Amino acid sequence: MVTEGRQNLETVIFDYLGALRDGNQEAVRAVLDPNVTWQGLHEDWVYHGPDEVIETLQEGLRLRRNVAALEFVRAGSRLVMGVRGPSLDEVGGEPLDGQIFDVFTLSNGKIVRIEDYRLRAEALKAAQADEDSRWR
């Protein structure tokens, strides 16, 4: 039996990131809930609905940032994705210091919310994820 956490992980990795890699906006739209919200690093960086989310994603993808590592942490209906790379220096003038973390909230196989965080600890706390003590 596939758990909710595993289903959410597969949805983000294969469906969402796969669609972004392929540049397939309709496939991205298919994984986004019609009422999806993306909360950026600033309080006023909020995007509502698939159109605004996809437009913002496209702006970011045009930068072709060099990603060195990805990390995924499952937390029930939430999933934390950490992205690290030398070109992740800033977004909208906000310093990133080489990394950013997204918390995805999913429901019924759809992404209903995305939240950006600068720090891993903040993202894990927001997702109510248990820190795996085996990671060094």
In short:
The protein is an alpha+beta fold and 136 residues long.
Protein architecture, described:
The chain contains four helices and eight strands. The chain has helices at 4-22, 25-31, 49-61, 120-127; strands spanning 32-39, 46-48, 69-75, 78-84, 90-91, 94-95, 99-107, 110-117. The N and C termini lie far apart (30 Å). 35% of the residues lie in helices and 34% in strands. With 136 residues, it is α+β, with helices and mostly antiparallel strands. Helix 1 runs antiparallel to helix 2. The radius of gyration is 14 Å and the shape is globular. The model has no long low-confidence stretch (mean pLDDT 89). It has a single domain, classed as Nuclear Transport Factor 2, Chain: A (Roll), CATH 3.10.450. The strands form two sheets. Strands 2-1-8-7-4-3 form a six-stranded mixed β-sheet, with helices on both faces. Strands 5-6 form a two-stranded antiparallel ribbon. Strand 7 and strand 8 (110-117) form a beta hairpin.
